[in-house]
Design brief:
alpha/beta; Rossmann fold; 7-stranded parallel sheet; 6-stranded parallel sheet; 14 helices; 13 strands; globular; undecaprenyldiphospho-muramoylpentapeptide beta-N-acetylglucosaminyltransferase activity
Length: 352
């Protein structure tokens, strides 16, 4: 039996693609474990799936001067030592990395021990962690064709984004039952990512009465962002984060408002849910979500609204425009092959 260790963390977007691959691997041929941070969201998500988990120290990598860089470099160095010890003991045949700061010491440790690393990059341009990991990696996978130019061509496979198999098996009927919604009125799903999105949460709630005239709303607002005053609001259902019910809630949705994280938008593409993408601004990020959103708009899968433009009734107008344009978007989405990444990646891993 071969052994694989996955790594990735910081946000759910660095974890759920790994879980998508894990769930479709043949457990009679593969022993599977996971390395992540001590207390990141990856620990909860991985252990919930009964996968052996090893925690290591993790530090943030910054592109600018900050005194925290000094202490975080010490954490990364400690994480490298811990990852190396874990890998020496576990002796995996391969390490699969999904990105996030915690992966850097794991990838470097694997390289130092002669363990091949396979890496998936979701965004249009590689993040800092994956740019560092590039020199220690044997095989690359990308979601976007445009991303392949950032990696060695002979080692890179354009596969799309790994989609969780369970997301494709949800029931609209169960989703409506969970929310106590009716089938005669369209459902707007709002997701700001596993950590929430303050601007989107506030924009939706400020326009709630107006939006509820047309839509029923499922609002996944992130941990600590529930509004107790809205708990009994008819036609509005809020969640901090969703696990088992998520496939059913997604199937209930007619349109979605989302951030521009690659994994999320590829999931909505696979589920054929027209999107209004509100990417993180350049002031709050490296601009990767803006590029992701622009590519999806260009391909006819989504509308886009910049966070800085969420003034007055702009959000409501864009949501209405998306719903009015949903049929041509659905037609374009039906021609996509967004669900093929997992079998392509597993095929490569099985050759090891």
């Amino acid at each position: 039996m071969k052994k694989i260790i996955f790594t990735g963390g910081g946000t759910a977007g660095h974890v759920t693609p790994n879980l998508a691959i894990i769930h479709q691997m043949d457990r009679s041929k593969w022993s599977i474990a996971y390395i992540g941070s001590y207390d990141g969201i990856e620990r909860e998500l991985v252990e919930k799936n009964n996968i052996p988990y090893f925690g290591i120290a993790s530090g943030k990598l910054r592109r600018y001067f900050d005194m925290k860089n000094v202490t975080d470099l010490a954490r990364i160095s400690n994480g490298l030592r811990q990852a190396r010890n874990i890998l020496k003991k576990e002796k995996p045949d391969v390490v699969f990395s999904k990105g996030g700061f915690v992966t850097v010491p794991v990838v470097i440790a694997a390289y130092s021990l002669g363990i091949p690393v396979h890496l998936h990059e979701s965004d249009l341009t590689p993040g800092l962690a994956n740019r560092i990991a590039k020199r220690f990696t044997k095989t690359f996978y990308t979601s976007f064709a445009e991303t392949a130019k950032h990696f060695p061509s002979e080692q890179t496979n354009v596969v799309g984004s790994p989609i969780r198999d369970d997301l494709l098996s949800g029931s609209r009927t169960q989703g409506l039952a969970l929310t106590d919604f009716i089938k005669q009125k369209p459902v707007l799903l709002v997701m700001g990512g596993s950590l929430g999105a303050k601007a989107i949460n506030e924009g939706i709630r400020q326009s709630l009465d107006d939006l509820l005239n047309t839509y029923q709303i499922i609002h996944i607002c992130g941990k600590g962002h529930l509004d107790p005053a809205l708990e009994r609001k008819r036609g509005y259902k809020q969640y901090e984060y969703v696990h088992e019910e998520l496939p059913h809630l997604m199937q209930a949705a007619d349109i979605v408002v989302t951030r521009g994280g690659s994994n999320a938008i590829f999931e909505f593409l696979a589920l054929q849910i027209p999107m209004l993408i509100i990417p993180l601004s350049r002031q709050s990020s490296r601009g990767d979500q803006i590029l992701n959103a622009q590519t999806f708009v260009k391909n006819g899968y989504a509308h886009m609204l910049e966070e800085e433009s969420m003034k007055d009734d702009a959000l409501v107008k864009e949501i209405h425009a998306l719903y009015a344009n949903r049929e041509p978007i659905l037609t374009t989405m039906q021609q996509s092959k967004a669900t093929h990444a997992v079998p392509l990646i597993i095929e490569q891993l099985n050759r090891i």
